[in-house]
Every structure is written in structure tokens, then in C-alpha cells.
Amino acid sequence: MSGESPTKVINSFKPDERSIPFSNRISISQKITNNKEKERLKRLAKSIVPKGFGVILRTVAQDIKVAELDKDLQNTLKHWNNMCKQLPNARAPQKVLSEMNRASSILRDIFNDSFTSIITNDETLHQEVKEYLQRIAPDKESIAKLHKSRTPIFDHYGIEKQIKVLFGKTVSMKKGAYLVIEHTEALHVIDVNSGNRSNKANSQAETALEVNLIAATEIARQLQLRDMGGIIVVDFIDMHLAENRQRVFERMKENMALDSTKHNILPLSKFGLMQITRQRVRPEMKVEILEKCPTCMGTGEIVPSVLLTDQIRQNLNVIVDQQEEKQITLKVHPFVGAYINKGFWKTMRRKWQSELGIKLTIKEIPSYDLLGYKFFDRNNQEIKY
After folding, report:
1. DSSP-assigned letters across all residues of 160-197
2. Neighbouring-strand partners of residue 145
3. Are residues 273 and 329 in the same domain?
4. How far apart are CA 255 and CA 20, in angstroms?
5. Phi, psi (5° rounding) for residue 351?
6. 259 and 322 in one domain?
7. Can you give the pTM of this predicted structure?
């Protein structure tokens, strides 16, 4: 069975092959470890679930009142009854019930009272979001908005920039501290650095503790945003006091408690290392934020300047011989232009002009690649050779 309800009660009942209609079984999420809470939920479920139905109560059902659970269950039963009404007249192949669309399923899992706006750039999706909000939280329906600007939605809200900043190697934190995140085949490594933060603490120990507490909060956030799974090793700033290491450990557990993904956290070692394992549910999220160098195309190697001069001279020979051009403009990157006009090339250019009988003008173009160049005739038409 599946259901929908507002805020954190969303989908307290969940479909599972072990819990289907015509079964009286009531199961509780294994993530709820409090035996008293399990008994309470089982007792409440028995009082509201109709005969012949079985349910699974998800982790979000913890501490929920019976009225909210009943509302969730009634919503689920409504879907079941609607499907049963369609079955007698259905002709194969015909869909009588389907999973909710992707946007609604995401809202089901993460939507809460902190949402202030949900913006889409598709009219159909906008209507689906509004209808879903109307069912689970009518007072929040107005936060669904349609993006109508001509500027693409990602550009308008700076989404691409935020994504690239998010998945970068370095993550900035409060007061000048930062994280360095490295990925290997075996594990992920996170290094905590104090950076150039202003030190208002009375001692080095207090400084280390303050930075590590800030880092614990940010690391928990980064693990969820990047969906990092497997083994994560965090190198915190060294803390000599065991009580300070325990505080950082507690802070990390507190922040990771909000993560629904199965995980395990070990206390810090004497060397300030913390080991975290986090279940990988989906393929690891990886966004390429580096761009290839337009000059070397990612090889890390460029043509030496001595070869560049030979290339230009050879191309000049071809142009003069085949097209008999006498007034030639060479357009290059400003760095190369400065090298030609003020460096060793200055005498070489005079030599070329003398040997080839041409007038050679150098023009600097900032948009050119570092070692890119083009030839133009007296009419400013590019010379093809």
C-alpha cells in the first residue's frame, strides 16, 4: 500500500511484497529501534487498518499521532478503491494504477513546512505539482510557480553555477575554513582545514574544536548532496582532548541522523580520523566541473615557441608563393603579440618582411587561443591556405 500525507507524515505506509492486500501483517521499519515506539505504532495500526489489509510503517511514522496515520491510510485506501472500480471494465493492455510522476515522488520524500517555493518551467509539470500539493498540503499550493521569463530557468537562478560550486574539490565553510574532497577507487577522503579564518578563540584547542564542529555539519550536508557512498574517511584537525573528539563525534551523529540512507559512523581516532560507511543506493553523483584547456586540449603539452615561429614562417611562405599577398595581417593572442612585437621576434619579423617582400602587421585578439593565429589580407578577409 502507498499513501500521501503532509509534511513528515508523507507516505508513512509503503508498498512492499511482504505487505499486500488480503494480508493482516503489520510491519515496522527496522530503523525504528525504540521497542516502546514499535509497540505503540503496531497498536495504533491495528486499531485503524481494515480487516484484510497489511501495512508497513516507514521510519517517518515515528512519533506520529493516530489521527495523522489514519489520514494517511484513508488516502491510500482511496487509491486502492479507485483501482478496484476500474478493474471490471479494463481491457488488456490497460493501465489501472501507476506510480506517481517523478516530481511528485520527490516531493513525497522531501517536502516539509520549510518549502517556500517550487518553480518549474513546464506547464504540465506545474499543474501536476499544484495538484499534488493540493492533496497533501492545501495551504502550500500557492508556492508552486511557473517560470515565464525568456532567460533559461537554470541561468535565471544560477543553478549551473551552484552545481559546479557544489561538486568542486574545495568546499568553503564559515569563518574561512574549508574542506578538500578527494575521490579514489577504494574510498572518499575529506580533509578539514582551518584556512585563513580569524582566530577569536583563546587557544589552539578551541580553534580546532570550533572548526571541526563546523566541518561536521558541512560534511553531513555534502554526503547527502553528492550522494557519496561506500567508505568515507574524514581527517579532522588534531584534537588532544578526548572530550573534544567526543563532541565532534556527537555533532556528526546528530547531523547524519537526518540522512535516511543507511550509514555507520565510528568515533574519531587519536589522529583525528573518522570513518563513515554510507549505503550507495544509486550510482555515485559525479559532475564534471573542469574544462579542457583550449590550447593543449587536456594533454598538458603545448607547441614550443620555437616551433610556433617555424609554423608561422612556413605558412607565410605558402601564402606569398600561392596567393602573392604583399600586405598581410597576423592576428594572435595578446601574449604572443607582445612576444612578437617586443621580444626576440621583433627582429625576426623584420627579417621575414625583408626576405618575403611583404608588410607584416601584428594584431592582438584576446579571444584567440594562446597559440592560435590567423592571416588576413588588406581587405581584412581571412587568408585560406
Report:
1. HHHHHHHTSSEEE-GGG-EEEEEE-SS-EEEEEE-TT-
2. 119
3. no
4. 35
5. -65, -45
6. no
7. 0.52
